[in-house]
Design brief:
The protein is built from 22 helices and 26 strands. It is α/β, with parallel strands linked by helices and 718 residues long. A hairpin with a 6-residue loop joins strand 25 and strand 26. It is globular.
Length: 718
């Protein structure tokens, strides 16, 4: 009978305990039979270190995982199995749209399904833990990792965080070997990096941190998320990986989290360049005292914890509690009884990248694309002569960053998607330009093809390396060569549709003002081309809505819908012309607001009404509005409910999303949509950090996005 974690802990030497706190990448385990060379030697990793190591990063494939685990169990003195972890962010082999796109679906069920499928594929390949979901709230599209978040709203991000955790972990992680443990990241506020520059400083008040940035992490943990990953950034001047208040006091103390905390790659050692540790020993001491259980891919713990204990710099109890948490997670995953857990080469072959999984990817891609403009040129007709032009016309680089085992070669390109809808004689496909450069021959070929076509479909965007980690950009327009291509084709006077492949909101000038229609496809995943073709030809209805504002200019950013008003707001009834909070050369408002998106039909919102003019703790307020499909096609809209506290203890946002509901309507059909607004939805963090609501005046806004709303007034009574 296997020993319980607490009993096992008593049998371990200090060296073995410290080994459990180290995570090494897969290559360290591949050469376990021979001499450790190259990077392993440079890091000072010995065979003994590998034998004691507690977890492995980036190992996958059922056969490889079983072989490595088997060898590890034979060499580890106490037979403690490895935890196998990996970055499975929006799919394992079957790649779904990037998380920002998934957010734009506003579809929690499909988001959960995407995580469930990713878990099934990964589990069959031997993975135990995924480093997802990333729930960082994002407001600055210069930051490349906005693609990995679901947007700028804390409520919506929290709902998606819950959905992803449910999908990855299921209801019975111990016995359901088709699931993996989730690791929420990056704790905390990584998305608020100054200047949108990755790994950069974050400086927020505690009230801002609690109100906007922390809710989605808390939601993931409330849903049972097993692990937390530290952020690279500072929080109140202290790097998160060494921040005792953040992890000991808040996460473990106030929130009661007793799961495993892991550093991001190399983040413990990075306490030195941050300037809060003089050397690796001090970095190890600060990280373990702060509550980091596992050090990823640096060896500060392995090299220095034993000396720190012997010198009475740290208490061995810190080591024991960290090891116990790791052993308990291994027990929860059943690894002591089933060290290979879900690893199954036959099942892996059967389900990874299966047709059923690809179909689910296609459905989510359909729901994630956002129609930003349509001056009557979409849907396309099947008898039109189409020129498909642009660097993404026949390009498999549509999976996006963090598509670990996704195959660009197996992705459905846009040319293939459109080609499946029309006779080959009606479609010409030319590149026109590369993503960042062009030849005269490419441009001439594009103009020649366009001159023979009835309508132009331009496939434009960023290559995947232009977003994601370390993908920050100061210029968030399309590359100049693509804008030149658009301008030249515009001169032909042909109808133009732009399809955009990208991982962030863009400055769309040079595209949205030139094209007759714009479809934001993001990085749509394995079935992207097929899904986009369905939308372009009207075989499916565009239903995506933005969860991150599109700026008018990069000079506005960060720009987001739930902003504050200032004491001199632009456009107030008594405002001066000049001495107000404004730009002299651009609008204050984003080009496209949070919640925005078009379909192939139109909806009217009428009869907005409150059940009363007061709300109290015992009596919720009921809100109703009638939505009518005024068009000739069936369509789906997302009814969005926002509130504003008109006078708070601290400044309150102009709008806060509180609820949303999807409504599907046939042509001419009307439905009454109702919401119940309760007092607890009006609570917020006051100046003294108490969480409460304030009696007084409120405004409620209801409509299809944050801009086009009907306003109603009510009071909150004591």
């Amino acid at each position: 009978m296997k020993k319980q974690p607490a009993e096992l802990l008593k049998l371990m030497t200090l060296e073995e305990k410290i080994g459990q706190l180290l995570q090494l990448a897969a290559p360290f385990f591949q050469g376990a039979d021979g001499q450790i060379t190259g990077p392993m030697a440079e890091m000072g990793i010995t065979e003994e270190t590998v034998r004691n190591t507690g977890s492995v990063l980036g190992l996958t494939g059922a056969s490889d995982v079983i072989n490595v685990q088997k060898q590890h169990l034979e060499t580890n003195r106490l037979g403690i199995p490895l935890l196998v972890m990996a970055d499975i962010v929006h799919g394992y082999k079957t790649i779904f749209p990037v998380p920002l796109a998934i957010g734009c679906s506003w579809d929690l069920e499909l988001a959960e399904q995407s995580a469930e499928i990713a878990a099934k594929e990964a589990a069959a390949a031997g993975v135990h833990v995924t480093f997802a979901p990333m729930v960082d709230l994002v407001r600055d599209p210069r930051w490349g990792r906005v693609m990995e978040s679901t947007g700028e709203d804390p409520y919506l991000n929290s709902e998606f965080a819950r959905a992803f955790v449910r999908g990855f972990q299921g209801k019975d992680l111990a016995n359901d070997i088709s699931r993996v443990a989730a690791c929420v990241k990056h704790f905390a506020a990584y998305g608020a990096a100054e200047g949108g520059r990755d790994y950069n400083t974050v400086d927020l008040s505690e009230r801002q941190l609690r109100e906007f940035y922390l809710p989605s992490y808390k939601a993931a943990l409330d849903e049972g998320c097993e692990m937390v990953m530290t952020a690279f950034n500072t929080v109140d001047g202290i790097p998160a990986t060494g921040n005792k208040w953040l992890m000991r006091d808040l996460l473990r103390g106030e929130w009661g989290f007793d799961g495993v905390m892991i550093s991001d790659w190399g983040a413990v050692k990075e306490l030195i360049p941050h300037g809060v540790a003089a050397d690796e020993a001090e970095a190890a001491m600060k990280a373990i005292k702060a509550g980091v259980d596992i050090e990823m891919m640096t060896t500060c713990y392995a090299d220095h914890l034993q000396h720190l204990i012997e010198a009475n710099e740290i208490d061995i109890a810190l080591i024991d509690e960290a090891v116990l948490r790791i052993l308990e997670l291994k027990q929860k995953l059943g690894l002591f009884e089933r060290p290979y857990r879900g690893a199954n080469a036959e099942l892996e072959q059967e389900i990874v990248g299966s047709a059923a999984h690809r179909e689910a990817s296609r459905e989510l891609a359909l729901k994630s694309c956002v129609l930003l403009k349509n001056d009557g040129v979409l849907p396309l007709g099947r008898e039109q002569k189409i020129a498909l032009i642009g660097p993404f016309a026949a390009n498999g680089d549509i999976l996006g960053p963090w598509s670990w085992l996704g195959s660009k070669d197996e992705a459905i390109q846009l040319a293939a998607g459109i080609g499946g809808k029309v006779d080959a004689s009606l479609l010409s496909v030319v590149e026109g330009c590369g993503i960042e450069a062009a030849t005269d021959e490419q441009m001439q070929a594009a103009l020649a093809a366009a001159s023979e076509a009835d309508i132009l479909v331009l496939a434009l965007g960023e290559h995947s390396d232009m977003s994601g980690e370390a993908g920050s950009r100061s210029n968030i327009q399309l590359p100049q060569v693509q804008l030149e291509l658009v301008a030249k084709l515009k001169q032909l006077g042909k109808p133009m549709v732009a399809v955009l492949f990208n991982g962030r909101p863009l400055d769309l000038h040079g595209v949205i003002d030139q094209a007759d229609a714009v479809l934001e496809a993001w990085f749509p995943g394995t079935e992207g081309g097929a899904a986009i073709a369905d939308l372009l030809f009207g075989d499916a209805e565009p239903t995506g809505r933005l969860t991150m504002s599109f700026p008018y200019s990069v000079g506005q950013v960060p720009v987001y819908y739930n902003r504050f008003n200032t004491g001199r707001p632009q456009g107030a009834p008594d405002a001066q012309v000049r001495y107000v909070s404004q730009y002299l050369d651009i609008p204050n408002e984003p080009l496209l607001p949070f919640g925005y998106g078009l379909g192939y039909t139109t909806f009217a919102y009428t009869g907005a009404e409150l059940s009363a003019d007061k709300l109290s703790a015992s009596e919720p307020l009921h809100v109703k509005i009638t939505v009518t499909n005024n068009g000739a096609r069936a369509g789906e809209d997302i009814v969005q409910l926002y509130v504003r506290d008109m006078a708070g203890d601290v400044v309150r946002p102009l709008q806060e999303l509180k609820a949303f509901r999807k409504v599907m309507l046939q042509p001419g059909e009307s439905k009454e949509i109702s919401f119940a607004l309760e007092e607890q939805q009006l609570r917020y963090y006051h100046a003294d950090l108490t969480f409460a609501s304030d009696p007084g005046d409120f405004e409620l806004y209801i409509g299809p996005n944050s801009r086009d709303v009907t306003a109603l007034k009510f009071k909150l009574s004591k």
